[in-house]
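User: My collaborator sent over this chain with a note saying "see what the structure looks like." That's all I know about it. Can you take a look?
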Amino acid sequence: MRAFPLLCALLVPAAHAATCSATSGLSRNSLLELYTSEGCSSCPAADRWLSQLPPDSNVVPLAFHVDYWDRLGWRDPFGQAAFSQRQRARNSGLGWVYTPQVMLDGADYRNWRRSRAPHVDPVSARANLVLTLTQTPQRIDVQVDSRFIGPASEADAQLYLALAENHLSSTVTAGENAGRTLRHEHVVRELVGPLDPNVRHSFRLQPGWKAADLGVAAFVLDPQGETLQALARAACP
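Assistant: Without extra context I'll predict from the sequence alone. Here is the result:
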């Protein structure tokens, strides 16, 4: 009988996946939004302030880079028209927008220059969040489980998910910040919502994004835009 050569199977390892999670506490975390641009000469001070927030500030910080400064000759590589639109919607009561603008739980917050961190009075949480990330080299799968407390209800709540990146920098060659190297933290790469408060969502990672510096923030707002709860989780180790 003729012997056939032994065929060796090529074993391909499954893509590495890491899972990690975060759970909100009994107190509410506040949502802190910075609207900024690399084309704005007064924005780097706000960028530095945001990057130096103490870890016990009880806020979830997010930096939204707008695009309406791009007309001055420098296109902010992190700017998005959707973030300009979000700022206008959040400022519908004011009727105008400016940078840098800090918003704390949807309200204009101008005391950031005079404080290391915003003073946030302890408020009982109106929602509890569990945020679970499953991360591969290609994507981050997110699962959010929400439980509402008191008068808050799932029917009235709107969930948003933000994929943000830290340790970013640009050498600006035109516009008001020409010649400066600018550094940024908590830069929103992608924002999705409103979503159902209990949801699964996948973020596909784009070329140039540094997986180790990414993280996901989840925040739940009521119909008036007030923060019910906010929570962030850094990339899985």
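A starting point for your reply to your collaborator: The chain has two helices and 14 strands.
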